[in-house]
Batch of 2 targets.
Target 1
Amino acid sequence: MIELIRVSHRYLCRKVLKEVTFAAEKGQITCLIGLNGAGKSTVLKAIMGLTPIHGGTIQIDGKPIGRDTYEQVSYIPDHLAVPPSMKLSDALQFMEDFYSRWNKDRASELMRFFGLDYRERAGRLSKGTAAKFNLVLGLAQDSDYIIMDEPFAGIDLFSRESIAEVFSSELVGSRGVLLTTHEVGEIEHLIDQAVLLRDGTVARTFECEQVRSEEGKSVVDVMKEVLLA
Ligand SMILES: Nc1ncnc2c1ncn2[C@@H]1O[C@H](COP(=O)(O)OP(=O)(O)OP(=O)(O)O)[C@@H](O)[C@H]1O
């Protein structure tokens, strides 16, 4: 599991994460939910070691994050970080050369699934198509966990549906997924656990099915209750 224990982070003097504690399990989809500026992207970057933490610990399967994190966890940022002039085929080749756990067959399957053209250049992709290619780059790594920052941002309904379909497919399989999204209503049927972040602190963590059956509430209901209170 990816485990954060009392993780704190500050930008200059401002505390952005305050003793954030939660765990994202393998085989589960955990959704980090919060209003703009709550600290969601900072949490994901901290897990990847892309931003330092100023307190607490982050462990993956019981070990502190470190050099191996990139092999264990695929990070899919909210933008496609491929040079605009690069063809998709070349970007895939680069990934294959760089990542020892790159799964070429899965990459081909994902390219087919999303109907992407290998000859296209990254800079010419529409926003939705770039988001799909971004997912290919992340999901084709044989990692144990997948972290996604806003995979649905600015994407049309049908593309969102096909992206959501991937979550429940073999392409994700038994890996652990930790994602942030503002489109909670659309994917709440896929989420196992929700972590509500408010002003850099965890306001509530819950199992979605439990809240549905015991309290008769949707994730969006709880989110409104907690975050808009
Ligand atoms: N490079 C930076 N320098 C200073 N402050 C920053 C920087 N990056 C983020 N912040 C601040 O940290 C806080 C948390 O930002 P973060 O991007 O993690 O929020 P978020 O929950 O992902 O927001 P959103 O939903 O808008 O993407 C915000 O108040 C933001 O202004």
Target 2
Amino acid sequence: MTGSHRVVLLACGSFNPPTNMHLRMFEIARDFLHRTTNHNVIVGLMSPVHDKYGKEGLVSASDRIQLLRLALNSSSWVHVSEWETRQDDWTPTREVVQYHQELVDSLVNGNVDPSVKRQRVDGTPSWLTHLTGSTEPVTVKLLCGADLLESFAKPGLWKDEDIEALVGKFGLVVITREGSNPYKFIYESDVLTRHQRNIHIVTEWITNEVSSTKVRRALRRGDSVKYLVQDSVIEYIYKNALYNTHNK
Ligand SMILES: Nc1ncnc2c1ncn2[C@@H]1O[C@H](COP(=O)(O)OP(=O)(O)OP(=O)(O)O)[C@@H](O)[C@H]1O
Ligand SMILES: O=C(O)c1ccc[n+]([C@@H]2O[C@H](COP(=O)([O-])O)[C@@H](O)[C@H]2O)c1
């Protein structure tokens, strides 16, 4: 593809547990960007949130990483990034995106930043190897559902400068959700409107409101979650009695 931009799509979330919709987000975002822009999506990354995020019912990061690894066995291009879970505390999303961009810059874009190298305690993550071998620069963009975009308006939740950096410096790819209106949301925000060209809205026509909350509820009640979540993920959940499945 001439003049194409190479892109890493990074999704941040609890993934508690990862659902098929979390995996599908990557597929529809990549298709959309290929069809409508010159963005060539090479790698997808899922960054599970730190244990200290403290959301109710959050199982340990090590279990969520295992669940993501199992879920991602069905994907050839989406990987887990463990960096966020390995920090001492919760990391704001702008810093998570920035860290991954700097890692890519130092190893792929030829822009070496020694401070980033110091943080790579476990060597080079395997997904980076998919980005080498081309001179086109690589940009990391935040992939999210419209509910995450709309959470930007919750008073005191996100720092203004972080929102500005996420949309101004990196860019967002937003998947619509039932009941969301990201176009109206952008219209009502000066900062989002200013950076509108950097926000790609992907309309999910095949609406599917599976969420981790609903999956946890079904598990708790002993209801089936087959076809909402990968079989290997369900197996791990039962084997390790996560989400109160031992009560079944
Ligand atoms: N059905 C869905 N459609 C579009 N985006 C989704 C969907 N489910 C999750 N996402 C997106 O996936 C990312 C990670 O989400 P998260 O782990 O919070 O999932 P969730 O299912 O919404 O979780 P919970 O129900 O525990 O709040 C977020 O950007 C969220 O908007
Ligand atoms: O960076 C922030 O200020 C910020 C504020 C609120 C939420 N987030 C991130 O958004 C994600 C939300 O996940 P969840 O499961 O709470 O919907 C998670 O990765 C959080 O770290 C990030």
